[in-house]
Amino acid sequence: MFSLRPFLAKLLETLPPAPADQEELKELVSRTLTEARPHASTENWKSQWEYLLKDEIFRLVVKEGKALRENSDAYYEELRDKLDLVVLFTEQDACEQTFPFIVLQDLLESQTIDSCSQIFSWIEDRAARLMEGLVPQKGKALILLRTLNDLLRRLSKMGSTTIFCGRILTFLSAVFPSWGEYGPAWEGVSFELPTEKEQEHAEKEDVDMRAGYESGPDDQIMVDVSSKSERTEDPEEKKKADFYNTFWSLQLYFSKPTTFATPGTLEEFKEGVAKVMPVIKEATAKERAMMGSRNLAGTAASLKRKRDPEPETENGETNLSEYFFAKFLTSPDLLDLEIADTHFRRQFLLQLLILLNHLLTFTKEAKETWSTSRNRSLQMDFTLEPADAQWAVEELKQTTPNGRQFTDTVSTILDREKNWIKWKNEMCAPFDKEPWTQEVNGERVGLWEATKAARADMLKPPGPWIHPLGSKPLSDVWDKGYTDLSNLSEHPFRPGDVRYFVNLMKQTDFKINRRKKQLEEELARWQKEQGEAMESQETDLTKGDADGQTAPSTPVTVTKSLSASGSLSLHPSLPPKPGSPVKAPESAKPSLLGALSAEEDEAVEDKPKPKSPNEDEELGELYEQKKRIGWLALRPARETHLQHFGKIGTGDLALLQQEIEGEKKREAERLLKEESTAMSEEPSCSHVIYVLQKTRQYKVISIDNNHNSRSEALDRVSQLSRSELPPNPTQRELESIGVDAHKCDLSRPEEVRAVFEQYGKGGIWGVIHIAALKAVGESTEIPLDYYLNNVSATIRLLRTMNEFDCHRMVYSSSATVYGTPPVIPIPENTRLEAHSPYGRTKIMGETVIQDLCHSDSRWRALSLRYFNPAGAHPSGVIGEDPLGRPGNLLPLLAHMAVGRVPPSTLKVFGNDYPTIDGTCVRDYLHILDLAEGHVLALNALDPESKVFDGLSEGFFKGYNLGRGTGISVLQIIEAMRKATGFDYKYEIIGRRRGDVPDLTADPALAEKELGFKAKADLETMCRDLWNWQTRNPYGFVEEQPNSQQEEPAKQ
Asked: Compositional bias (Basic and acidic residues) at which positions (predicted)?
């Protein structure tokens, strides 16, 4: 941030050991300033150094507590050196003259008493340099005096500080000869600092005092009580105290103008102003006189215009940057010193001007312009009389500010005050309101009476709470069986899919329609009853006329009448609709309803009109439930079906479900054909054979139809194993490097049976079943071939093994069995749900083996579900050599770098996933780690193994093999770029349908029970893959066959 920081850092590095020699320090500072001068402007030269030096000191100060516990001497020596730097920078005009005193003030306020004593010792040592150019009542003199007075006040509240207080008082007396009287008589006073010998003598005496002093509970600063009364009786002291009280009493009126409403307050205020203003004016005149001599000398010296380093205002008052805003000490003895401060006087005058202007708005004439009953927020029961108004005007004239800058500031502030008051009076809404009332039993009562019944109900003891666990959601969670945190891991909650919520929505719609129909039936029934009642009344009235009964001659108001449409009014107690025509009743014939009896009226009124659908509470709850269902459905759906949200309007779930089903139907084939990075490769059989041979425990038999492999690979494996034999190998070790290779097809049981017959019953100890067709896209085109080769062939192999008493199998499964997993990282207990025929063949294979283990206790099998193997043997002798174009990302990148695939632009599907860089994340592991996992699983099938402990039957388990760490697409590209030096070009395109953000294994179970651990990282995988590819550009053949020319790369 600061261009000068490197120069200060360099200076601090070159400081000599503490305590540093002052001349050497001075030379270092001078050199630093010379080097730094071209790197900072003149405007911020001082401010930068001040900030950096203060920052360095307070970085040290924050470590005070720790430093005092460990090595206080080193801390204080470093602090003294940095304070010396502050003084040296100030002496060379890199900081303001007041800067050292500002730093000291902050230090003494923040440090402990012990540290303050050490800092004060430094002040005593550097007194001659610090006090150079000291001007009483100005600049650093004010700061120093205020700082030491604050320290004395702090020490007065503590014990055992008498010696320290004496040192401060002695110092003040030496620096300020008139300090003992606290008076402003410093002008023209000369003083001398103690010599070095006197200083040494004083320090010696100070040490002797410390040595001979025994602290005790009465060790406090003593006050001469007997002389106190004599001082208070002194007329000058009494006058000073009265003035002090008068001056600060004016703050009451400044802060609370409403006190003027009290009779006699204005007179007290006028008396106070009359006492204070002469003193303020005297201080200003005194300062002008003192500064005027300097102005005169400057004018006489030269008439040539030049830039003054310290510009002055019109009235001679300086506007120096070293002016210090006083921390008003509120001490009678220091008030003279505070009034001598220009800023202190200006603050008082500004307060007085604001209050006088405010008082003038309360004259009788002024109040008529703004006082209204609308808003009384600024009003008080006070009117300024003409005589008092004349006094205020005169005071305003006498208090007119001098100096153009101060005048402009005062004018701006006064205008803002007036505008603010005007705005508040004219724009704020009235706040007077009638008391709250409510009609109860025909009488309007206040809040207390109206809430009497409700408060009585609140005092009744509450009944049992309807939710046993406090709230409905918590009770529902408990009822669902989630009574402990372990339940969440055993049975994780999964929100339903869109189809589930669509069914809930249909059920809610059914309830809504049923309720609407019920309301319509109730309304029709009510209207029918009302019509029958009207007909009955007309019949009774006609019958009464026929019997000679006469209606009263007095007209009766019609309380029920038929509207123009023939419908009845809303309620019998309501009057006719305003504005509707009402026929005058004939005197000869009474009103139709005038003859209704009271009993009939009551009977009609007992049946109010049913609620409309808009008024029905049950319907309202159903509509709210419908909204809630829609929200619950759309929230999880946005994670996987966000692309359809623009097609469903305001949230039509049925339409969303249609879009999802349509997408599944339209894109199923393409979704399964596209090679997803979630799909795993089968491990190279050669690497598994190599690891088996390395154990020197097994004789390896290979059965392969070489559908996607080369026989040369086995020769290289034997060559590699032979090179790793120890000197003078045993016969068993020599036999372990050989491979009995048989070319046969598992889908032809007679060929497999012939191999087993060569070794007889029990001759083969176990089988690692790796062989399978594994292209996801291809499985959608020829699913029958996949079921025949991966499922039927597995069943035939199991039958043959069972026939020849071979009951141990390690089944090479795949991560495709998990489909789109609900939990990341993926545990083994995740439901199996594949999305392709290939993945379903793996699930079927596991199911068949598991059922076999349950039916026959002799069988033991482990299924290994692994993710993305990569890399090769570090020697580069064996590695992955796919026939045709590589289907996985890492082999494709290697082929591009070596030149087997033209260097075209890679296409990365999506960079807006919630991952580290926005691209998909997958779990990669080294091919040798994967091969090691197969051998560990084979060893676990030994009768002495404990992996099946706890199982009484069905000795079958599934394990994840992976690193448990996800790697993004861009991280893989960057790792291959570092390994190969090839500059891969890639292009970010839209998401690929079916890709999920993260597929990472949870290998904890395999690590715990099998001892499996994927050790190699991504860098090792890329390095070993590139080593294999550069040594074998065309795999296990010397040159690329013409029949296998590669097509342009597509990723």
From this structure: 195-211, 227-237, 605-614
